[in-house]
């Protein structure tokens, strides 16, 4: 979306006409798990958010003459704390909108608070389908991908007739929603899902889980794959691989991840899957800017959740510009069906469930001894029109 000088002038006029003084800041709360197991994800998300606000405002960090003020709140990955902090942001801090959190479990606890206070919550990067599905309300918009987008893209990457798949996932909303969506998507590829294994998020020893997975697959004909969906620590991929699934002709597959996690992927040259983002894949001006600026400021490339945080920041700015206001109802009207440019290219908030439709990327792992992590080479970009993402609202 291009925002012209004339449109900016109109937006400024509307903002001032609505009673806001030019000096009054636009307040955005970033409610996310700064501490805890997903600390790395959270840090990336916040860096990306601030870069997104900077990019979308051409470095001014203001909209219509009003400065943007970002208020950070740490959920510590606790659902009750997420609820309380979001209520505090809306009620005490009087923020215009909020962004976050990292965890799906925390996000599900926060959704009713947005509805209670009648304020917009842009969910980034929590993934569970139910956020924009059965637990959705009209104040929720999500720039992050959902479980169906992860699942459909990964099913396309590995699914084919004569392929048998078993899954290993965390035993909470992220894992179970992800497997449910993957199972549904895989059915359309001709592949067969034969077993589902769920383990606690803090699991360190995967021996028993691996044995059940091996037993489910080892006697199947054709191609046999264990598909892993996991967030945070534990490193199940390497630990399952250490138990030698290859002796049964079993391969491993998973989606993309942050660069530190991709170090472990170097043990799987040629592995295929699908990812939300890898900094070398998208070719567009927003990603070019992100990669250049991030490299200069942080001495390294942007990561998985940096791109997501940037998309959320851009979405917030574009929504306020389009609405010409921070009024919730005007924001909702502006955001429904809104397209905006991100490091991944164009995203679009679907009107029915406010899920951001977006590209995903089928990759193949390549090992480059000069790079610390596994390189994800693009096999195929799966564009918005290539994926039929179900609407799961009530």
UniProtKB/TrEMBL annotation:
The keyword Isomerase does not apply. One of its GO terms (biological process) is amino acid transport. Pfam families: Peripla_BP_6. Residues 1-22 form the signal peptide. Keywords: Amino-acid transport, Signal, Transport. Residues 25-366 form the Leucine-binding protein domain. It comes from the Bacteria. Transmembrane segments: none annotated. CDD domains: PBP1_SBP-like. PANTHER family: LEUCINE-SPECIFIC-BINDING PROTEIN, PERIPLASMIC BINDING PROTEIN OF ABC TRANSPORTER FOR NATURAL AMINO ACIDS. This is Leucine-, isoleucine-, valine-, threonine-, and alanine-binding protein.
